């Protein structure tokens, strides 16, 4: 009897930890779109990821977009994925250790854009998924992101792998649709320690973020937590990052509302 009660308590605790937010804002302006991962880029050959050109092409092609934000040393909110400038710009330096004026150019010669520049370019013509990075402190980046989004009338939502970023939005802007990023892929010990990997994979971090949607790696979504999400909690679902049309079609059939694609132009 005691064992059964103990198991029930553990199950109840587990469900409490992974539960998403029960109430969510209206997401009607975000549904029905395909989202270009870091804009409609070509793998940094002619059109760099997270560049103004990639976002312009996404809008003109009828896609929404996903982008990443982080802070420079002097507190400017830039749109860039990696903490380091090495992979995209060829400069072995961290963005959080570099002033905005000292950032190198992207491969096409353009500047790494500020979020405010992207918002002016998009101007409400397509929805935006804003991923809040953790470099230099997730809550600090979340605060700057919220300030940058104030007054923007286009459709957008926010997401992050770091639950403290979404906890900031949960506390200070509960009206903004927020998502918890997670992955069912194999453990990359260079990216995450094992406890963090398990917490993210199993969505135990939801107790902090209480997300409106789950953004999960697809099709590596065959975990117990994701099964419970789909069959018990029924949150909104985003999938990343799809690189084939048949995989995109499969995600749509499984009820993913926000499909994020990359390196091909899917059928509308």
Major sheet characteristics? 8 strands, parallel, barrel
**Widest sheet, order of strands:** 1-2-4-5-6-7-8-9
Strand content: 15-25%
* Class by SSE composition: alpha/beta
In whole angstroms, the N-to-C terminal distance is: 56 Å
Count of separate DSSP helical elements:
10
Order of helices and strands: HEHEEHHEHEHEHHEHEHE
Q: How much helical structure, as a percent, in the residues?
A: 25-40%
Uncertain residue ranges: none
Apparent shape = globular
Give the averaged pLDDT, no decimals.
96
Oligomerization state of this entry? Answer: single chain
Rg result? 19 Å
Question: What is the number of beta strands?
Answer: 9
Jot down its keywords:
single chain; 268 residues; alpha/beta; eight-stranded parallel β-barrel; 10 helices; 34% helix; globular
Question: What is the topology?
Answer:
Elements: H1 2-18, E1 35-37, H2 52-60, E2 64-71, E3 77-79, H3 86-89, H4 115-122, E4 128-132, H5 138-149, E5 156-160, H6 163-172, E6 178-182, H7 194-201, H8 206-209, E7 213-217, H9 224-233, E8 236-242, H10 245-253, E9 258-261
Parallel strand pairs: 1-2, 1-9, 2-4, 4-5, 5-6, 6-7, 7-8, 8-9
Antiparallel strand pairs: 2-3
Helix pairs in contact: 2-4, 5-6
